[in-house]
Amino acid sequence: MNIFFFGHTSFTAQNLLKELNLKNKIFLFSRKNEKKKFIHFDLNKRNKKIFNNLNLKKIDYLFYFSSFVPLNEKITSWEKCKKTNIFGLAHLLEDIKIPIKKIILASSCSVYGSGKKKLFNENSELYPENFYSLSKFMQEKLLQVYCHKNNIDFLCYRIGYVFGRKMQNKRLVKKILLNYRKGKKIKIYNKGLNLNLIHTEDISYLISKTYKKAKGIYNLTNIKQTLLGEFYKILTKKKIKKKRKMNNFSSKKIFKQFKNLKKISLKQKIINFNNEN
């Protein structure tokens, strides 16, 4: 099988290649211009020659993890999101003339918005509230139309707040960890904020076990709620007395359809995150 993977060096996808079947012929596309085993690819430029030179008859699976992801979604500019996340994807689809069997998109749970309802699922209404979430929403719609028109299977994973190794120091949960390590006093605001956490290892495991058979849209977050205050308590190895309820962006659908999937302990992942960083 031929697999195209755009964005394999991204933070979210860092463990996924290890889980994919090594017998497959995987073509890695990256914006980083380095002499490694991948093809240099710039989302903001036209790339017809790159694909023509491969001389392939078909693409079985196209993974699309390439996106501009701002550090702070609320203050990023529309120009940056539009240029890469929308026009970049549109140009890619226009330039690839090789028949594609299935496209797998890494989207974001931010398309639901902050939400006034108590419970969300894959069929809930979408309320993108900033330029980044709007660009991810438009990516989904663009690919849905493209796949329908060209008889291509479409699979979309809406991913929650990702944490794990190689996390940027400026990200919220990493900042909490670093300040705690330095012995600095930390005031946790919005303790009731639901982080909708998912670890990079869990992303790779869930996707690798489902991408061949799954179609449609799935939320990828931990199956249980993790509030910001609870995250801090777990990180500092303090006991939590209250039981947690189901989180807003539930992964229930993916576990229900693929019963063989194991449920991974988020608490253990947070403790490991502490030890690894």
**What is the share of helical residues?**
25-40%
What's the overall average pLDDT, rounded? Answer: 85
Shape: globular
Main sheet strand line-up: 3-2-1-4-5-6-9
Distance between the termini: 37 Å
Pathway: Bacterial outer membrane biogenesis; LPS O-antigen biosynthesis
Family: Belongs to the NAD(P)-dependent epimerase/dehydratase family.
InterPro entries: Epimerase_deHydtase (IPR001509), NAD(P)-bd_dom_sf (IPR036291)
Protein name: Nucleoside-diphosphate-sugar epimerase
Explained architecture:
The model has no long low-confidence stretch (mean pLDDT 85). The chain has two domains: 2-160 and 200-220, Rossmann fold (3-Layer(aba) Sandwich), CATH 3.40.50.720; 162-197 and 223-247 and 262-276, no CATH class. The strands form two sheets. A seven-stranded parallel beta sheet has the order 3-2-1-4-5-6-9, with helices on both faces. Strands 7-8 form a two-stranded parallel ribbon. The longest helix is centred in the middle third of the chain and has 19 residues, at 131-149. It has 277 residues and is α/β, with parallel strands linked by helices. The two termini are 37 Å apart. It has nine helices and nine strands. Strand 1 (2-6), helix 1 (16-19) and strand 2 (25-30) form a beta-alpha-beta unit. Helix 3 packs parallel to helix 4 (131-149). Residues 6-213 form the NAD-dependent epimerase/dehydratase domain. Pathway: Bacterial outer membrane biogenesis; LPS O-antigen biosynthesis. This is Nucleoside-diphosphate-sugar epimerase.
